[in-house]
């Protein structure tokens, strides 16, 4: 095992293909392929499943990727320390978020610094947190309060959960309603792990409110379409509802459904240049 073999493996694992890794690194594709093959043969392991032009790490490859992420993060941290505060001009940042709405402003601000690229994955808060802890993301933005010494969190903003219904729904005639209005109502909610669902279900349980059937949908878009089709009452962050004439928002009058959104990174990676830049932009936007 050599440093160049580990670097080649890491580049391919980060980009998802040998050709993309070659373009981004300036190395030749045969060079990268040869380095990875040599690493696999020297240890008798299989690190990637080839899928056409793309690759996906095997379980061994995924574990090794977690190690190389930490390894090269420390190298980046050492370089950042030695270079001081020199302007950040290039790099690739992996972001996991529970909503694109809350993260694009930070990404846009970072783009002004130079030729930066991003990989943004959107999932529920539980998956976002897991991706960060597995070193599959460099930073995260999520609506989940965290008390974990491994993590550094910065409060970005506060949003609130509102209900939304089709224009013809009985609740559509009301701008505000008590939470008890959901008693016996059919609901359309994200899968478990969604902070929207978690907060709403906790509030209903505390008030002994028992809704009717719950239709579980994995994506926000799916929730919207199911609500539009009349499957039940939906719940969403107010900032995400947008101006869709199919729906009427209904604020919950008697229950605090406010939720804070946080920018999060691993404590051990706070000084890595791109991670630090992301958190700095998040802090600037939070204070504006």
Task: Give start-end ranges of low-pLDDT stretches.
Answer: none
CATH fold descriptor of the domain at 158-259: D-Maltodextrin-Binding Protein, domain 2
CATH architecture of the domain at 158-259: 3-Layer(aba) Sandwich
Distance between the termini: 49 Å
CATH class descriptor of the domain at 158-259:
Alpha Beta
Can you write the helix and strand succession as a string? HHHEEHEHEHEEEEHEHEHEEH
What's the main sheet like? 10 strands, mixed
Structural class: alpha/beta
User: Residue share in helices?
Assistant: 40-55%
- Discrete helix count: 10
The best one-word shape is elongated
Compact description:
The chain is an alpha/beta fold and about 290 residues long. The protein has helices at about 5-15, 20-25, 30-45, 60-85, 105-110, 125-135, 195-205, 220-230, 240, 275-285; strands at about 50, 55, 90-95, 115-120, 140, 150-165, 175, 185-190, 215, 235, 245-250, 260-265.
